[in-house]
Design a protein that fits this description.
45% helix; Rossmann fold; N-(1-d-carboxylethyl)-l-norvaline Dehydrogenase, domain 2; 289 residues; binds nicotinamide-adenine-dinucleotide; 13% strand
């Protein structure tokens, strides 16, 4: 199978990231099928794509005709059998290793072509372990996108213990063909970007813990001193990712070492049920804004 815009491309899971991946490929001229268990999520996802594309029309970046063409290139279904003729499958379902392994075992049985690539968009799980659920681990690799996918240029291409060179090379080609910049890394907790992000955020947490500066000033320092678009606390709040922060840190701590241990004050914020900006409270309090 040669990588081109004519391949049979399937994304499984149309939640916040899966649908964003689908939108990004369709914007780049790929025809793409999305497979999602929940019909309501499909409707919500397509409404979100429509809204995003309408914004681009409003800004004059694409025409109404372009928008219609992008939408036409997206085929959504709840029928798992739609993976049968896949050349490339990108999995974007729940971040749970057993759920993902179960899906990869089903993909192994259902995807007809031996040359098909079976890719996972996992952010923190082991690609090698997910691949072990198949009889073709050499065809499995990670293709880790960043949200919102149509905007974020980076793709981490993750080489599992059994991924073949050909598989890794094809994922790199696919990422380039959709206008992204790929970086290749080994299967290792947090890959490259999440490992750096969590270490950076944890150092911010320690600065607050030691009373060196407030969380607000850490954010301002990161924005104005380092040129980051958002400080670490603002970022987790904006992503409503406060509850995810300890989960990723815990797995980084287990795999890499105690430097990823979370300070007590952060554990307490998490135990208090703060989730992020949408709910009014995360690392910062937005209820008085
Ligand atoms: N949130 C991020 O910024 C980010 C970035 C990159 C990668 N990821 C990874 O992407 C994956 C998806 O994350 P998300 O935030 O979109 O999750 P989500 O919970 O929003 O979406 C998961 C979707 O998968 C669907 N699903 C579950 N099992 C399914 C199955 N067997 N078949 C078809 N659909 C199924 C669910 O109905 C749901 O809509 C995770 O592995 C996550 O780690 C997340």
């Amino acid at each position: 199978m040669e990588i081109s815009k004519d391949i049979q491309l399937k994304v499984i899971g149309a939640g916040s990231v899966g649908m964003s991946i689908i939108e990004a490929f369709a914007q780049q001229g790929f025809t793409i099928s999305g497979i999602e268990v929940n019909e309501e999520i499909i409707q919500r996802g397509m409404a979100r794509v429509d809204k995003n594309l309408s914004k681009l029309v409003k800004k004059g970046k694409i025409s109404d005709t372009d928008k219609e063409a992008v939408i036409k290139r997206i085929r959504m279904t709840t029928d798992f059998e739609a993976v049968k003729d896949a050349d490339v499958v990108i999995e974007a379902i729940f971040e749970d290793v057993d759920v993902k392994k179960d899906l990869f075992a089903r993909l192994d049985k259902t995807v007809a072509s031996d040359a098909a690539l079976l890719l996972t968009n996992t952010s923190s799980l082991s690609v090698s372990e997910i691949a072990s659920a198949t009889k073709r681990p050499e065809m499995v690799a990670g293709m880790h996108f960043f949200n919102p996918v149509p905007v974020m240029k980076l793709v981490e291409v993750v080489r599992g213990a059994e991924s073949s060179e050909d598989t890794v090379g094809k994922v790199v080609e696919l990422a380039k063909l959709m206008g992204k910049v790929p970086i290749v890394c080994k299967d290792s907790a947090g890959f490259v970007v999440n490992r750096m992000l969590h270490m950076f955020a944890l150092e911010g947490c320690r600065i607050v813990e030691e009373g060196v500066a407030s969380a607000k000033d850490v954010d301002t320092g990161a924005r104005l001193g380092l040129g980051h678009p958002m400080g670490p606390f603002e970022l987790f709040d904006a992503l409503d990712g406060v509850q995810l922060f300890p989960k990723v840190c815990n797995s980084l701590e287990q795999e890499i070492g105690s430097r990823f241990k979370i300070p007590i004050w952060v554990r307490n914020i998490i135990r208090a049920g703060r989730t992020g900006r949408s709910s009014g409270k995360g690392f910062h309090d937005y209820t008085k804004e």
